[in-house]
Design goal:
The complex is a heterodimer of chains A (321) and B (330). The N and C termini of chain A lie far apart (47 Å). The longest helix of chain A has 16 residues, at 3-18. Chain A has 11 helices and 12 strands. Chain A has 321 residues and is of the alpha/beta class. With 330 residues, chain B is mainly alpha-helical. In chain B, a hairpin with a 2-residue loop joins strand 4 (161-162) and strand 5 (165-166). In chain B, helix 1 (10-26) packs parallel to helix 12 (269-289). The longest helix of chain B is centred in the last third of the chain and has 27 residues, at 209-235. In chain B, 51% of the residues are buried. Classes of the chains: A alpha/beta (321), B mainly alpha (330). The interface between A and B is medium-sized, with 36 and 34 residues.
């Protein structure tokens, strides 16, 4: 036994002795990436809510976007002998050794929101993530259904060039509309996932497409770009949501505000509730030994103006988006 | 005809004309203008409007570079001041909002100026500190989310119009005239150039180089603050993660395209703003062209290279020799 392992073992033993005898309550450590986006903040607050609902003691460690902080957090969770570890990995590689330590300590690890490199597949219990190809497909299917048989020129605001989410959301959408000959993407440019660029790119689309009269729908890889695009359309004297259909992905609160005002049509949710399914999987695994599938896909729910957008806005705006 | 044009600035004007012509080719409606809700509407207006933040940044940056400095923090200062403006917009009047945002820019400029002029730090390192920390400060102000506002006064700053022109364009024009009047209407411009040319000789000749350096960083901070407020007003929200991101590089590029040497000692405000317009004319052209976005950066790099080659005395010397050779052959 190395001195380090000895130390870890004795620390664990000490902790075990010190733990109160509340046998029923699970303690789970969650290594969160940090506050990289509003969605991330919402994921953290929803995780707390979901844990409180199930009376799970959730310890969240903020890694400030650094892998070494996440590795440190996981080691400290192992030392505290938690019942399970949730990990939202900041990068996809370099987890093998720390996940092996968790496996040796018999602590199951669940990945949230992002997957890791295939070489580490046997090192975690399951991954709870959204399928971004599917998100694009849900958006495309909604548009095809809404447009019907009319010819429809679509302009697309892509995410950052090179981001896998952007490539996947494009792929899913393209596949969904490929079945409909009347739907055609006439322009596609990157808006870098930001409002300012979304607005600037939409302004140029409007000019390039004869003042926007020939545009039938806008598809944006995220809601923020769509919020910018909606402003551009309004300033050009167009009526988004009525003359031009909009569909985007993420379901951030501000898109519901636009929807309530009749300026946006649909959004596909990237749910911030990754912890809920993960907690259920852990509970089943601990109680009955049910081994969950390697991948738990979260629901990509479609929201339209028919879903009382004002109410959803009110419920989402406090989550930290 | 060509003899009538200013010798300095010829390359920039030529470059702008060529890029405008290319834009016209990729997008036939490029020069179309119409009135929409009392404001001019068209790609040319987009170029001016979208070019405003970088043009404002370049106004401050060109003075800093003239003193042989550089300010990498302007993008982050934009984010800070945009965040402050957005947080105050719905609870305070426009004068308070502007005073707070511009005041913050001034303080940021003072900080940079203090590090460079008083502590004698290398400008690139000194301003790198605020470049990194500033975005963090902006994120603290917004708590990591996009702070939106609906105050019509502040929205007007980004989306309103004066005599058909977008307000940001009018503000940038006003700042250009103001800056020009201050530095060229007095000996200030000369003193700034002297500081950049040879700080020690200027100091010995009685120029207050320290005060000059401090002043240009402060002005750069104020210009960045204004750009930040306009960027926030434009999208009716402050996006601390993305506002002004990498714009410091565009501002430096605009100054360099405008013919100002990074070694200081000589500068032109008008040409720096022209440099910003060249960059934006190119960006808007790329967006209108319909090429896949993977080409954006490549096209930009090639155009920048061409513009800089056009300005290079050695390159134009080579081109002149080649032309003469061709003529003697013929």
């Amino acid at each position: 036994m190395t001195p380090k392992a000895l130390f870890a073992a004795s620390a664990m033993a000490a902790l075990l002795l010190a733990l109160p005898a509340s046998a029923g309550q699970l303690t789970i450590g969650f290594s969160q990436i940090g506050s990289e986006s509003g969605w991330r903040a919402a994921e953290t607050s929803v995780s707390k809510q979901e844990a409180a609902k199930r009376q799970v003691n959730l310890k969240i460690a903020d890694a400030q976007q650094k892998q070494e902080n996440q590795i440190k957090a996981i080691r400290s969770f192992i030392a505290q002998n938690v019942d399970a570890i949730f990990l939202a990995p900041v990068v996809s590689t370099g987890w093998d050794s720390v996940l092996k330590e968790a496996k040796e300590a018999k602590i199951p690890v669940v990945l949230l929101d992002r997957d890791i490199d295939p070489s580490g597949k046997e090192l975690y219990l399951t991954a709870v993530t959204s399928d971004s190809v599917h998100e694009g497909a849900v958006a495309g299917d909604w548009l095809a259904k809404t447009v019907g048989n009319k010819a429809c020129n679509i302009v697309e605001l892509q995410g950052t060039v090179g981001a896998s989410v952007a490539a996947n959301r494009k792929k899913g959408f393209d596949t969904a509309i490929a079945k409909h000959a009347n739907l055609k993407v006439v322009r596609s440019q990157t808006g870098d996932f930001t409002r300012a660029k979304g607005k600037e790119v939409m302004e140029s689309f409007i000019k390039a497409e004869g003042g926007g009269k020939s545009i039938c729908a806008v598809y944006a890889h995220n809601d923020d770009m769509m919020v910018g695009a909606i402003q551009a359309m309004k300033e050009a004297g167009l009526k988004p949501g009525k003359e031009i259909l909009t569909v985007s992905i993420d379901a951030v609160p501000d898109i519901f505000k636009a929807m309530a005002a009749g300026e946006a049509n649909a959004t596909v949710e990237l749910t911030p509730n990754m912890a809920g399914p993960a907690l259920d999987a852990i509970a089943a695994f601990k109680d009955k030994g049910t081994v969950p599938p390697k991948w738990i896909q979260t629901e990509s729910k479609l929201y339209t103006a028919a879903d009382d957008p004002q109410k959803i806005y009110d419920s989402k705006k406090g989550l930290g988006y | 005809m060509i003899a009538l044009l200013p010798r300095r600035g010829l390359a920039q004007i030529l470059a702008l004309i060529v890029i405008l012509a290319v834009d016209r080719v990729v997008s036939p409606q490029f020069f179309d203008l119409r009135l929409q809700d009392g404001r001019l509407f068209g790609s040319l207006i987009d170029v001016l409007n979208r070019g405003t933040p970088v043009a404002l940044l370049s106004l401050g940056m060109v003075l800093v570079i003239a003193t042989r400095g550089i300010d990498l923090s302007v993008g982050a200062v934009m984010a800070i001041c945009g965040a402050i403006a957005a947080s105050l917009a719905d609870s305070h009047g426009l004068p308070v909002v502007l005073a707070a945002a511009l005041g913050a820019g001034l303080v940021c400029g003072l900080w940079n100026g203090f590090l460079v002029a008083v502590l004698g730090m290398q400008p690139i390192v000194a301003t790198l500190i605020l470049m990194v920390a500033g975005r963090g400060i902006a994120q603290l102000i917004t708590e990591g989310r996009i702070v939106t506002f609906s105050s019509p006064d502040l929205v007007w700053l980004g989306n309103g119009s004066v005599l058909g022109l977008p307000v940001p364009v009018v503000i940038a024009l006003g700042m250009l005239i103001l800056t020009g009047a201050v530095v060229r209407g007095s000996a200030l411009g000369l003193l700034i150039e002297a500081t950049g040319g040879n700080a020690r000789a200027s100091e010995l000749a009685g120029v207050g180089t320290r005060a000059m350096i401090l002043a240009v960083y402060v002005w750069c901070g104020v210009c960045a603050a204004l750009a930040g407020v306009i960027a926030a007003a434009d999208i009716m929200g402050a996006d601390a993660n993305n506002a002004g991101l990498w714009l410091e590089l565009d501002a430096i590029l605009a100054v360099v395209i405008g013919g100002t040497s990074l070694f200081g000692g000589r500068f032109s405000l008008v040409l720096a703003v022209l440099g910003a317009l060249i960059i934006q004319t190119m960006n808007t052209g790329i967006l209108l062209s319909g090429y896949p976005p993977e080409f954006n950066l490549l096209v930009k790099a090639v155009v920048v290279l061409a513009v800089l080659l056009l300005q290079s005395p050695k390159f134009s010397g080579l081109a002149g020799i080649a032309a003469r050779l061709r003529r003697t052959k013929a």
